[in-house]
Structure formats: structure tokens, C-alpha cells
Amino acid sequence: MRWLREQFPAPLQARTDADVERIVVRARTLGPLLGLEVGRDVTTLAEALVLGFGADDEAEVRRAVARERRTVLEGIRDRLAARPPAAP
What we know:
Blueprint (H helix, E strand, L loop, with lengths): L1 H6 L1 H4 L4 H17 L5 H13 L3 H9 L5 H14 L6
């Protein structure tokens, strides 16, 4: 949790510790369903969830062949991270 807060302070600044914990639990639950069981992949998924990973992103990972899912997920995370911040 602390690592996510350090890496993504802006998206998580208004989130409670319980909210961040739910993101981590969601990544741990969703990861294996997407064929992402390695800890590094689940961490990448948690990062993507912080940044706004949604249903379309999930579908994109599911469509990828198993050996490409990590790369697809990393691309989604990077794309989400590159988006300009939402206006207040």
C-alpha cells in the first residue's frame, strides 16, 4: 500500500488506506482470472487499477494470448499513466 502511495501520490491523495487496500485486494483477485499470477504482474495490475484500469482494459488483456498478457498489461498501465490528469 505504501509503495502505491509513493509511486502514485496524485491519484491516491484523496483515497483512504481502506480504498488503497481494496485496490490491492482487487488486483490479487483479478490477476489470476486474467492469467496474471506472478507477483510482478499483480503489482502492475494494481498500478493500472490506481490509474483507471476499466472494463475495456480488462477485455484487452483477456483477448491477448497468455504469453503476451504481461506486455499488454504493461502497455495499458503506461498508456493510463501518460494521460493528462483529470480536471477538478
